[in-house]
Design a protein that fits this description.
This protein is α/β, with parallel strands linked by helices. The protein has a single domain (2-227), classed as Rossmann fold (3-Layer(aba) Sandwich). It is 48% helix and 13% strand. The chain contains nine helices and six strands. The chain has helices spanning 2-14, 32-44, 68-77, 88-95, 101-120, 131-145, 173-183, 199-211, 217-227; strands at residues 22-27, 52-60, 81-85, 124-126, 154-157, 162-165. A six-stranded mixed beta sheet has the order 3-2-1-4-6-5, sandwiched between helices. The longest helix is centred in the middle third of the chain and has 20 residues, at 101-120. The protein is globular, with a radius of gyration of 18 Å. The two termini are 24 Å apart.
């Protein structure tokens, strides 16, 4: 826990993610990454030099997911929790019958989350993207779109006035998975019918195969993103 908080704090400081008296919402999908992020940010409140306020928001896509275990965990940590109910899943799968549902779902989910933030007066959202997500996204953009790019550690959305921060960029997926299992943190099962059958999963599998020949592949890609640098990826401190 202390080691992981140290890495989160280094990432937060490197990219100046948290300012004094910030009101930060954590987007809880129900998966391991977002619950780990909330656990670390909740614990870090006692040690970080700037005081900040936390809340947690989950977007109910309409798959019938039960968020009550997460709600109970938030009560233990003293973090307010809100579930925003939507009809995103029925719209995408039943009404529109989307052939590429992930893209449309992501857009609608972001829109619902941003609106929930504005309704509650929050202008900063912490997302659970980690080290492996960054490497995979970089390769996905290169392989499927023919461009060099990735999401940014800190992103300001001028249309909504919301700032997105990603404090777990220095943590690997394996480290996060081990932490969630060791701490017994609650996970809500993803009921999406296309889960694990996406371009991201294809890219994840490709990286695993490449690492058999190039063990340091992910470190080199991540380092290259910081050194190029990609827009907003250069360390600030």
């Amino acid at each position: 826990m202390q080691k992981m908080m140290g890495m989160v704090r280094r990432c937060v400081d490197d990219y100046q993610m948290i300012a004094p008296q910030d009101k930060i919402a954590v987007g809880l999908s129900g998966g391991k990454d977002s619950i780990a992020l909330l656990a670390l940010l909740a614990a870090m409140r006692e040690y970080y030099p700037h005081s900040y306020e936390l809340t947690a928001i989950s977007i109910d896509l309409g798959f019938g997911m039960d968020f009550s275990p997460i709600e109970r965990q938030c009560e233990i940590w003293g973090v307010p929790f809100k579930v925003v109910k939507t009809e995103i899943a029925p719209i995408i799968f039943d009404y529109r019958k989307e052939k590429n549902p992930c893209s449309m779902c992501a857009k609608m989910r972001r829109g619902a989350l941003n609106q929930a933030l504005l309704d509650q007066g929050f202008s900063k959202i912490a997302l659970g993207h980690h080290y492996d997500d960054a490497v995979e996204t970089f390769l996905m953009n290169l392989l499927y779109e023919g461009r060099i790019g990735c999401f940014q550690p800190v992103t300001y959305l001028d249309r909504t006035g919301v700032t997105q921060i990603r404090p777990m960029m220095y943590l690997s997926e394996k480290t996060i998975s081990n932490f969630v299992e060791r701490e017994g943190l609650p996970i809500v099962h993803n009921r999406c019918p296309v889960d694990k059958r996406t371009k991201r999963q294809e890219t994840k599998d490709l990286i695993l195969r490449l690492q058999e020949q190039y063990p340091d592949l992910k470190n080199r890609i991540f380092g290259a993103m910081q050194r190029l640098p990609l827009p907003e990826w250069e360390v600030l401190r």
